[in-house]
Protein 1
Amino acid sequence: MASDERFEALLQEHRRFAPPPDFAARAVVADPTIYDKAAADPEAFWAEEARRLDWFEPFREILRWDPPHAQWFLGGRLNAAYNCLDRHIQGPRRNKAAIIWEGEPGDSRVLTYDQLGREVGKFANVLKRLGVKKGDRVTIYLPMIPELPIAMLACARIGAVHSVVFGGFSAEALRDRINDAQASVLVTADAGWRRGNLIPLKANADAALRDAPSVRHTVVVRRVGDRAPVDWHPERDVWWHEAVAASPAHCPPEPMDSEDPLFILYTSGTTGKPKGIVHSTGGYLTGVAATTRMVFDLHEEDVYFCTADIGWVTGHSYIVYGPLANGATTVMYEGSPDWPDRGRMWAIVEKYGVNIYYTAPTAIRAQMRWGPEWPARYDLSSLRLLGTVGEPINPEAWMWYHEHIGRGRTPIVDTWWQTETGAIMISPLPGITATKPGSATRPLPGVSAAVVNERGEPVGPGEGGYLVLTRPWPSMLRTIYGDDERYRAQYWSRFPGMYLTGDGARVDEDGYFWLLGRVDDVINVSGHRIGTMEVESALVDHAAVAEAAVIGRHDELKGQAIAAFVTLKESVPASDALKAELKAHVAQKIGALARPDDIFFTAELPKTRSGKIMRRLLRDIAEGRALGDTTTLADPAVVQQLKAQYEEAEG
Ligand code: PRX
């Protein structure tokens, strides 16, 4: 199991924080028997949550479980956009702020539920006019601007399946995702802002579309205008502002079957090809609505701020669908935490009186490095709940967050989940669960998780093993788009009847879960999930490279950093210039998020007799540990020599 040292350190963690009495007194979930009640009848528990949504047609059956395929709320018909908009607009939330948007250069915009509803209706009609029909796929490649959730909800309104591609992905990555989904429309922008620089989204889109014939139309948001002139293809491209100007706001919501797909979101797996995770309408919306309300203790008057990008699942579930299904006010921020200065996030908290703040451990560690004087300059007294997601949080970062952001007053919810789970699975309920720094605490009511050994048997308290989910849940992925076989093989074949998360964990004497990181070939860099094979494929695509092995090594700030061991083709000399070129090559193939931190040239890679690269040993080398078991290697001398070379090179 990876992370042995972390494991040992966590065994020493005994601090406990009970929910503050004033918080508990008015918590949304205040009755601890919720766990037992849900465990006694999970289907009834989830059905009750599903009934909080508005259904055009009530469901007749809660769950049909035909492993590994689950169907939830059968026979029910609903629309996700209707649940996020119309039902609020028809009631007292009509003029409540739905989205508070803060742009990077300092511009801002507030959309009430009524205004958001009109924008969504207009864009839904634009999509229809472009020929988009129920079930068609629409790829969205936008910066963090209001048009992004508007486009998603417009798709949901007419029953089209959206596939949002993070704006930091390259043209090639975008092209592959469009082709896999066979999208007919692409929504993009002229450019986006990043630390005062422009990200050329339209140019990337043009490059992607040279080889993506399924796309008939592109809708382009004018975000930066004259500063980023774009090439125009009149037969294909339309400006967003021109199209919506001529579009009526009224668009009836399409009644969708509970099991109809709501969206596809690509994520990295253990092969070179990203997986299109498919989420349903009824089950997904039930999962995100319930968890937003319970985990974030959502009250009517709250201002809620999740710092994720909507290009990742956290943004889908906890900026868009979860908060809006609950009629909440959700803040979205376009830019970076250190632009124009390192106090930016706290300035936003102060400006809008944010009550609930949800971010990633890597962002907290960056703040620790910048120093507590930044948050100290701002009035953070509105904050009453903090959350983290995306990677294991080290107890030091947890304590810093607690002291310097929560000022010792606010509970922290460390939420474990995945793109595939759709919604939070393991997390405190802040009004009733005592927290321990570094632990995501317990599976939520209605969720069943376990830690098992190689044979699939539950391990004892304190022992490490594989984290599995042992019962279907409403917001679980339904399949991998176009590849149901991979869905079966990836998640359900290792331990029959159990969902394999790919994470290692242990459970302590109190039943608390401690997440230990991925145990497969997926790495987590600043909370971004990257497949080692994707980076390897990008490297061997370069003319100079014969072979490459990529691993995640521990990094103080980012959680993990990307280290690549590269064998060059025979006639190619190694040089620093080539290292830089290879890093740039990966960034161009995938996106800057996958740029390797280190590249190490080696004549040979450690392999087993059957030719499999032993990445475990490369991790030992990169993390400066003694080498693990080398007996299965074809030539153990290779790895010894590599270790010596690495240590010499790294000084
Ligand atoms: O390894 C776990 C880690 O992030 C992975 C899921 O990544 P992704 O699908 O991109 O979704 C990220 C946001 C939900 C998991 O397999 N992870 C996520 N949250 C936590 C975590 N690891 C430890 N603690 C968490 N709270």
Protein 2
Amino acid sequence: MDLYSGYIGRLIAELAVLPGIGNKSAQRLAFHIINMPKDQVEKLADAMTSAREHIRYCNTCYTLTDKETCPVCSDPSRNKKQIMVVENTRDMTAYEKTHKYDGVYHVLHGAINPGMGIGPSDIKLAELIKRLQSDVDEVIIATNSSIEGETTAMYISKLIKPTGIKVTRIASGVPVGGELEYIDEVTLSRALDARVEL
Ligand code: ZN
């Protein structure tokens, strides 16, 4: 039986769909929301629908952005011949925060994970290969050091090697299984500096 039938039940159900939010957290959030001032709730709801409506993939690196081409790709001072491959926009943001990288990015939106049925065609890999037809000096693989991240790195490296483009992998100063976005900026820039050629 649904104890909170009606509007609250619906709100809890919608919140529980979010990643990392179990039923308990969903209930806590739902009760927090209904106790919030009305205008604040409206702001929250509007932020969600507006973000969903306006955010799209950059036409070059596929990061999430509200422009056709993201700020990094449209910045003339960035080195377009150096492409860092990351799993998601959060990882790209983590590298941007180090202010130590002046190349561009390619966002895969995932990693190869056979156990979960995620293959090479389920991430933005074909899009990366297409980008390599332009003048590229180096591809830096900065996927996470999880099994999926390493599998993806290996796969990409094998794919690119025959083209003669230099392929490097960020150093494993990054803890195993560690998600890039949680690693501090110093560790990240060190991992980048100490990258090794594959
Ligand atoms: Zn871009």
